[in-house]
């Protein structure tokens, strides 16, 4: 193992960053950013004063930093080995108004069920000159939550912000579709990265202008070394209510849980089984069945939108190969890809320890001693049962499968395997989504289903198109936005909003043109303001834009 003071930075100017959340994603992101010299603060909801106090104490004991032990981050000192980093953290606060006042970037990394409450806490203090990054996002439902929260703030009257326009209050929205890392939280201020994803798909707001679509992926590349952020070439689904984890975590996690535990008889296990490396054929089969159902819904949506053929969305095997590259030793089929991904080594099923009767304890201890690839038992009298309250069900079912099921219901598509898993999972979670074969249970209102926003007709599944007229001043996107506004149907509007490749070229040329007439960074930033790209007007990010696009 080698040690390094900082994760290598790739030309990104120092930013003020607020990281919201306390889990593995939030603490890993904070460590990566702090290690590069960015000013990083942690925000905890006022509801979690005790948790915030514990994190402050952990940071104090760790020299004011989060320790990150990485197995796959790129370094010159240890290109293939384990490296330990220290990410400096300025502090922990429960005061959103104070932290967000100076923030360039606000990063949200919390569970999907907690997302809406957090957005509403932050909304009164957000403004257009900020990047709001969801790491990871669950779907366009996040954008709808943000928009609704900001509109409610405007209706409520003056707050710490003096602006009353949605355009002035709306930060630049971006959402990573998956976390950049396979990471685990060992303890407060102690995280481990088992693998780094080579590529991560990024979603932006439906009306994001061309300049932002060019620059934000490159900015995130620099903030999170080792991962390349890419806009999806088939961004049409980002203009609908499909979840971002489509055919990835939203089918892998529930499929693995169902395939592993649906036939379980309730007997405690002597050990914690590996989640991926002990995957069963039944689990792989269910993942593929969920994939087939999801693709049927995608095909129906594409037909509804007037597309000649359905877009191709990579399945779980293809996604793992693309995300992890050579870390997947055998990508020949889904089961072998699950079992051979080095980034998944040592990841166990979420389990709860339970006491065993004396005879069963003796049998369990003997079985654990002979079991290959199993975690050691905590004691001779300890057994394990699955924890069905884990996020693999509590998050990926309501904001993944239920969201897809909602779209299917509007489009009239039958998806029996997704129905089977939702019915099983809602029983384990104590939730109610499907009732009598319809998505009308009481917990739909807190899910990612489009029905929670009043969607009942196919044309309502398209989001963003209704706002294109208001976005007509969105700088370099204006021609595309105007075309969308003039479109006769929602389908045509979405296709117009997909921002063809030539606009990207035009965006770069426009920035270079602004730069050619500017004597210094101040003039350059004023030029960017004329292009209606507010997030790039922040001095740090604007300077980065100039360096990366104008040389």
UniProtKB/TrEMBL annotation:
InterPro entries registered for this protein in UniProt: 6-PGluconate_DH-like_C_sf (IPR008927), 6PGD_dom2 (IPR013328), NAD(P)-bd_dom_sf (IPR036291), Opine/Lysopine_DH (IPR051729), Opine_DH (IPR003421)
Source superkingdom: Eukaryota
Domain Opine dehydrogenase: 251-427
Chain segments annotated as transmembrane: none
Name assigned to this protein: Opine dehydrogenase domain-containing protein
Lineage: Eukaryota, Viridiplantae, Chlorophyta, core chlorophytes, Chlorophyceae
